[in-house]
Specification:
single chain, 317 residues, alpha/beta, Aminopeptidase, eleven-stranded mixed sheet, globular
């Protein structure tokens, strides 16, 4: 059996055009068992090095394996979820803290982030976008239109918004129950990038084992490079009929015996009044409006996110 050793560094590949331009960073395997981005970035690296693809302006930074410990273990995390509570630590407590100490400053040096992921249950690719332009304390952004323009050209037709705002509502609910929680636990790569003044999109490329997911990731990368003018490829056209879904409520599991009424799929449509789950005492949890159930987690721990509710959004129209 091969001996497993804790990684001591990150493999980072950078290509710089001879003309100035955007500084783009692309991440793969932020979660170690989500390897479509890794495969796509490794393919692109080979093509750039062979001369098949040319970076003509700007700077492209690629991190094919962002969490090498989780990648080595072939699971979502090493010591913890890298895509939560991203921050620089004076006294790192785990492997992911050490990665954050390298990754956070790296993100601050770039203008644009594409973070490539995959998901467990069957479904179609989708992109997670940030808030509309605002000056609030939670997720201020002044470049929402630029971020939307990029997202519309990745190749996905479905878009999800409202992540951090809905997560913050969940934190307030936990605090009201006396559970220690902080909104910054919901901060991952894209939120960190936006806080440093850049734009960022997470692309969920398909199911983990879907043979098409690496191609979805690769297409998104090539489209991004063309859209930003970093290659001479024809600029992609935006999606004409985007489906935009807004998360608006997160429901926590409060007891191990809380249970779903059936096996739900993420983004499964639900009607108002649909009984989604029951608490241990039999209390029914129902949909308060027509919409979708998102990220249902049968393995959720007590006082952790169990499922999200989402509704239609007119954004991107």
């Amino acid at each position: 059996m091969k001996e497993l050793r804790t990684p001591t560094g990150l493999s980072v590949h950078q290509f710089v055009g001879l003309r100035s331009g955007p500084k783009l960073i692309i991440l793969g395997a932020v979660h170690g068992n989500e390897t479509c981005g890794t495969e796509a970035l490794q393919r692109l690296q080979r093509e750039i090095e062979s001369g098949e693809v040319c970076i003509e302006q700007g700077t492209l930074t690629m991190v094919p394996i962002t969490n090498p410990l989780a990648f080595q273990l072939e699971r979502r995390h090493g010591d913890r979820n890298l895509n939560r509570n991203m921050r620089v630590s004076d006294n790192p407590q785990d492997f992911e803290d050490s990665i954050c100490n390298v990754l956070c400053p790296m993100l601050e040096q770039h203008d644009v982030l594409i973070d490539l992921h995959s998901f467990q249950a069957p479904g179609i690719p989708f992109a997670l976008i940030g808030a509309s332009n605002n000056t609030g304390a939670l997720e201020p952004i002044a470049l929402a239109k630029q971020e939307e323009g990029l997202a519309l050209r990745l190749g996905a037709d479905r878009f999800v918004e409202g992540w951090l705002e809905t997560y913050a509502q969940g934190v307030r609910d936990r605090q009201a129950r006396g559970v220690e929680a902080h909104v910054d636990y919901g901060v991952g790569t894209t939120e960190t990038m936006r806080r440093s003044g850049g734009i960022a999109v997470t692309l969920e490329c398909g199911q983990h084992a879907d043979d098409g997911a690496p191609l979805t990731a690769y297409t998104a990368i090539r489209n991004t490079l063309a859209h930003l003018g970093m290659t001479s490829d024809t600029k992609p056209k935006p999606v004409t009929e985007p489906e935009v879904i807004r998360l608006y409520q997160v429901i926590d599991r409060l007891d191990p015996d809380d249970c779903f009424t059936r096996d739900w799929l993420s983004f499964e449509e639900i009607k108002r009044g649909t009984v989604i789950a029951h608490r241990r005492d039999g209390t029914a949890l129902t949909a308060d409006q027509d919409g979708w159930i998102v990220f249902p987690n049968t393995k959720a721990q007590v006082n952790q996110e169990w499922f999200y509710l989402a509704k239609h959004s007119d954004r991107l129209k």
